[in-house]
Amino acid sequence: MARAPLLQLSQISLTFGGNPLFSGLDLVVQPGDRVALIGRNGSGKSTLMKVMAGLVEADHGIRVVSPGVTVGYMEQDPDLSGFATLGDYAASRLPEDEAYKVPMAAEGLKFDPETPVSTASGGERRRAALAKLMAEAPELMLLDEPTNHLDIQAIEWLEDQLSNTRTAFVLISHDRAFLRALSKATLWIDRGEVRRRESGFDGFEDWRDTVWAEEDDARHKLDRKIKHEAKWAVEGISARRKRNQGRVRALAVLRDERGSQIRRQGTAALDLSSETVSGKRVIEAVSLSKTFDNKLIIRDFDLRVLRGDRVAFVGPNGIGKTTLLKMLVGELPPDQGKVTLGTNLDIAIFDQTRAQLNPEMSLWDNLTGDPTMAVSGNSDQVMVRGTPKHVVAYLKDFLFDERQARAAVKSLSGGEKARLLLAKLMARPSNLLILDEPTNDFDVETLDLLQDILGDYDGTVLLVSHDRDFIDRVATSTIALEGNGNATVYPGGWSDYAAQRTANGLEVLEKPSVRSATKMGTSAQKSVEGLTFTERKRFDSLPGLIDRLEAEISKLAEYLETPELFTKDPAKFRKASEGMADRQAQLDAAEADWLTLSDRA
Length: 601
Fold this sequence. Notes:
The protein contains 19 helices and 21 strands. By secondary structure, it is an alpha/beta fold.
């Protein structure tokens, strides 16, 4: 006998902000369902989940929960007022004999149940809300971006718990690896319509593209039919006016049908450019050590980052990834050791706190008030990679409409704030991009686009992320911070790192490589026993030679930028150009020699 559905929505219609979000929506969640809820940012995923939870009332339609079924919803911004600690909140609805479930969940999600509510961060509050839901174990769990603010270890713990639960759940997430591991069905929201596919997230993109291709084909056929009927109406109606009014009315119906079709939203116009080429050596760190708040972050750490590298930093929350990143770009001094930045660096930073955005100012003022984007004497335009552009037109490139331009940044969703920050960063050229937790709040399609942009970017990327799939797609090497000041470099992305750890059972040091960040470990950099006497002298002299050549190239580049140098003194311009090319060739050879000798050492 078939079991009754846990939850059923029938003919749900909802208008949000003056715009229809859903109309005539039907949805059923069955016992044991493991559903991925997919859609663009702004498509209504979170709103639909709140309708399912009974927190938002639809304008029309019916929500039915089967008798005896409990529905639990993980709140994005939980109300903890009235509770002294995070643990008190998480255990508030549990019987005493089940209170043990909270510390178990807290251990997996990495927060302290004794943390006072008054001092808890936003991330800790969200983890407490997730622990509360996991401990209560309702018949249906509604999870809205549960992996935000979780590190990879906590994500894997949650993944394991959900894999083994008998509870049904509906899941919103941007984390592809998480979705692939857990989902058995997919709900796709697209322009107010919800489609269901009895298969997990793996293969979703192929399904989506097939649906869109069929839609485009049907639209094309409809356009051809309208064109044919319109031509008949112009050329043939006069002779048969009375007999063919039915055909005229049919043409009007076709036009109404075409006009009612909702166009798909475009993709954000993401683009990165690096007008200035950095030196081949972007960052060199030697013997870095740092203690922060009495906690050892890094000890005796050596690193070399070369132009074009994509370096991912992974490790548990609080291990020091952002601190190390700030040391490597010169924002924070090490306690010991030295960081040398390469020449001609234009650095752009995407920070996880969105500190570059003023929440009280409008989107318009956040762009035009930025000195790097302001156009002198014109408050309606911003400078985008050297070209003035109207601020509203530029905001539309990032999927903001004209009404949002004058709205305060604090009114934006997390995904919208992330897009606005990208708009600021991408307006100016850069050749070293720092991405600190860029994947939070983006939808899957924006992450796809960002990945493609990074693939074409000819600069260097340093990335902190807990998104395993994104790391796999972007990184050429992964630096794992493993506690007690230890950090190890692994070639490849997250899956490569995990496979090497599993296969070897110990830290795997990466050999120096032109196309990957190079950890010059103690044995590789500080011992030269494998070199001859002549090679050892060459090896010792190369860092000084490389520094000198880079300095000379930088000075020649500045000289060649002298206004009208080419027209006033072409001989000097030619000589300086030849000198710069010669030094660049010497630099390339010196760096290649250093890599070869370092490997042999």
